[in-house]
Amino acid sequence: MGTFLSGVFGWKKCPHVGEFMQTERKILDAEAMDRALSRMAHEILERNQGAKNVVLVGIRTGGVFIAQRLGAKIREFERIEVPIGIMDITLYRDDIALRNKTPQVRATEIPFSLDDKNVVLVDDVLFTGRSIRAAMDAIVDFGRPQTLQLAVLIDRGHRELPIRPDYVGKNIPTSRHENVEVSLKESGKEDQVLIREGSVE
Amino acid sequence: MNNGWQKRHLLGIQGLSATEIEQILTTAASMKEVSQRPIKKVPTLRGKTVVNLFFEPSTRTRTSFEIAAKRLSADTINLTANTSSLTKGETLVDTARTLEAMAPDVIVVRHSVSGVPHLLARWVRCSVVNAGDGMNEHPTQALLDLMTVKERKGKIQGLKIAIVGDVAHSRVARSNIWGFTKMGASVRVAGPRTMLPLEIERLGVEAFDRVESAIEGVDIIMMLRLQLERQDGAYFPSTREYARFFGLDLQKLRQARPDVMIMHPGPIHRGIEIATEVADGPYSVILEQVANGVAIRMALLYLLLGQGNEDTNP
Description:
The complex is a heterodimer. Chain A is an alpha/beta fold. Chain A has helices at residues 2-9, 30-47, 62-78, 130-142, and strands at residues 24-28, 54-59, 84-87, 118-126, 147-155, 167-171, 179-183, 192-196.
């Protein structure tokens, strides 16, 4: 009896039913992204007079691979290995009590001192600025950098806090309802940046 | 994909699924890093209040909960039986409701009677965490033990663990039996027959009379403290005899695998259930267990309090 019933009711729902058609635009392809990252790496070196005192800190999850790309560029240009840290900002967010679901906390890995360094925070997309606020609070708990700078691949506007990036891959005017999706080879996709209609969150 | 935490209380390991245990362990692994920073504090639980309500003596568990709450920026209040109104004859439920009126977010409770946290959970609206209830459960201890094993051995599934000593009176044993079997380890227990509950096999464990045979081939040995405060009769002739037959010393340890890991929930009785050379020896992870306890409690407070204001969770 049990098997019979589960046979009858065990049909699966088609996962695509009910989804809307989405329009998407490509705003950076692989080559344009690479050129933007090269320019950002040069700007970081120029502003800090070389790479000697520079450390990169990528914000999970989108900023980590961008930080590693910038690190590789700097190695290529200056033959210097800059330390790269990983920052999880979950514990510093200001919206935990507003969400129904507890965000997963992941590890922060900054196995070097930030004291007196020129710390470049790296993220993929700059939007409201709230993640950067959280990351700045976290950085302060790790030490006292000489300077704290911000590098983002995409600045899409709509800031809610007085935060301005120092290095920008591309400025893109967006509406609040659009989504900016940065995909990278490191996560098994093609290097590109897309804008989609409709909001996920 | 819904990997959100759903529970409002932590009353025991028995009520947790393997997925939930896994989620606590993953979160705790990330929390551990916070305790290694120069500034060991994050602002996550700012404005939340944690009440530690302890009706039994405790150093490590209460301190551990307090440190965990403070590292997440919550405010903590400690109430112990002899400084609270319970000595003036107030009932447990009245104490809980009085505390409730002051709007705490979590009550961490330890009591000598099994089931007290479950009773409180029915009367208060905030979260309740069991920090040890009678002979029933001590879930955070089992979680930190699981974390220590997972860190050291890389996995829990498929391991063999021997829990040795006063199993009958031990809430640590009960929680660990639930925890390790749920996570796919096989559990043995050993101790004097007077201290092994009848039909303990029904919890899915193998019972042994001799320590030497129980520890043969296991990956982990967990020694239990003699729960003298909970023993209401004569369970063994003398502590000397107990130490001789059931204490873990170098002689008995020869039966174990060379890479065996030795755990103890503390406080340890040197020379009774564990010899000094063993407690301080290279296989012992007793102090790591304490360090992981803070991470586990941070993870729990975060998961219980981080789920927002929705009052829909049972």
